[in-house]
Amino acid sequence: MENIANFDENKPLAKLLLDIFSNLNGNSKSYDPMTAGVHDVVVTHAEHKLSQKGKEMKLIKLRSLTDGRDVTSYIMKFRKLDWKKWQNINVGDRLKVDVSFSNGFATVNPIRVISKGNEIPKKPKVALSKQTILLFDIEIFKHDSLFVFRDYFTKKWYIINNDLDALRQFYLEYRDSMFIGYNNASYDNTVMRAYLQGKNAFQLSNVVIKSDDRGLAYKMFDSHKTPLFGMDLYQDNKGWSLKEHCAFLGLDIKETEVDFELDRPLTDEEKKKNIGYCKNDVLGTEKRFEQNLPMLVAKAVILLMFDMDKMDLMKTNANLTARMLGAVKTEVRGDLTQPLTLDKRLEVNTPEIREAYLNHEFELNEDGKLNVSLEYTDDDGYTLVYGSGGVHGAKPSYIHIGRFLMRDFGSLYPNTMEQFNLLSRNIPEDKIHRYGDLLQQRMDAKYLEDDVVNISGLDVPTWLMVNGLKLPLNTKFGASGAEFNDLYDPRNQFLVCATGQLIMTNMYEIIKGKADFIQSNTDCHAYIPNSEADEQAIDEALDEFSERIGITLDKDEFSEIWQKDVNNYIGVTPKGKVKIKGAIGLTGGMKVSKAVVSNAFINYLVAGKDYKEFIYECEDIRQFQIISKTGWTFDGTVTRDYYGNETKAQKVNRVFAIKDPEKAVTLWKVKEGTSLDVEADEYVDNTSYCKAVPNAPENYIISNEACGHGIQLDEIDKDYYIGQVEDTLELWFGENWKERIEQAHHERKAQGFKPVEVKNYID
Length: 763
Hints:
Low-confidence stretches: none
Structural class: alpha+beta
Helix content: 25-40%
């Protein structure tokens, strides 16, 4: 592990991302409003609907054949003359129109119909300005506005401080570029676009940050002007802030010393500090961008495949999926709690499970959601838990050395939606096939022998297309349960989950009696067959079952498993591949906090490497970092030194266990409030403190500099991290963990399995 994370293998993908972006429909000019005057247009949308006041109307959208700009017109039926002009106008009609504006609203008068049945024109792709990838961040004060950009390819900085004319010139020079930020979709883009239009940036910033009414910001500037293309890294933040990502990656995470509440212009020294802080955030954004490039390119590939627009890159995955599938928002249907009918392809014979799912209406839980809650234990003592996440079961604190099998369905929920006709009912009939086409495309792509595929004239690595296809397939299920998404269909989302649970139950009943179950997890059962004959019988029955329901069932062999519970285990294949599930894997290696503990723990189990030796030999400072964050429910963070002195601290901090108690500090989360003074019979101010570092070392220090530039290796108390490994081993395997693990290592050797090589699994 390097002190600063390195993603050299991803960097070439940035050029591919820009190439794909350049080939998507739209340029900046085409997203400006249509100008007043006479235009040659094609109707792109024509819809009869009711206004907010319940009046019958027709919504018409038109696109200029000259520059691709759009205009929208609302035709009210009670205005008979207007209605007569537009009532027979349909999608694909080419018109000559006269456009005028009053108070920002367009009035469109049709001059004549030129032709019918035309294809809807795409927005022009040709860039009209420089085109590159710009990482950026902004800092807004009451009297100061700072905009910092960095060209990803040239590494050139553009720093614009309190200079609206310079920002406008920069925007016009680069407006066809990709602007990449963190939370820029709702904050940076909104504030910068408003500022470019001459609005007060501080007022916009306050509204975005403090107001619960997000729509209020869009009423303060013209949201149809000053378009910005790009992507928002916050949409795939995995639940972490930019500062947390920077901390995990080993970067400098020191926050600005300049008070954002200052009611005066910044001094020259404050401006210098603010620029340094903002540049540091841009560098953090760039590093996170490089880390996430495979996902970003995969998302762009999907847009290219579906001939979509550059603006669609800023959509969330859920909203993008809804658009791809053509979903139309519909009121929730009245069948939410109706009984489930068991599909004829499924056989469920366990009485307790049948009673939970069949022949009765369902009840809504406290959150108004459908759910089945059931805990079933069979005659062998194996327990299956049914809940909103699927079916789960596992032997707790379990170690097994020897051959066993994991049988899991390929893309269970996506295939269940397709095979059991449970896609959102908001998808129009003529577009419902798209989801199945995507499933088949992904399946076909996985077996392509070619390293690259040609999409719209652009060569794209096949693996990126496969990953891109996963995005809408995996997003569709969650989007069906998202109230504000066009795919929202809670009944069918519940039926997907319930059908998946019944599929897994059917599979469980096929295996039961012929094998010893190890675990069950949403789409997979792991088990040890009782005999070769039983294994063959299970395989034959499962093959028939898989074919019957139309969902592929994979078979993977493992040689050992170390299992705390259903959500935390480590499996090893006969070829030495290690599968890690749960907190010990630190979210696939992204959460680099106490990484040395996870690495030492995993290597001790699967490689037989003494965990104490691993930690004593480790010289990677970043592996020893512990990342602490104070959440929004607290009012602040303070630190106390060895002598009891208290100072304000950051929200996100990087700490290390140290040997010297006189250098040590403690971090506290602070919550301000009031409490009743009974004797005085009045409420008084009260401040409560909560420790900010879980399982904190006895002595630790804050080092928010980039790893390698602050604390040194010889200051770190490695014995603390050794103790953390031992605590984790006891949590997984009980007080006699050492005896159990040594016995397992002996069994591994006796059965002829080799330990895997020592490596950093969190890297």
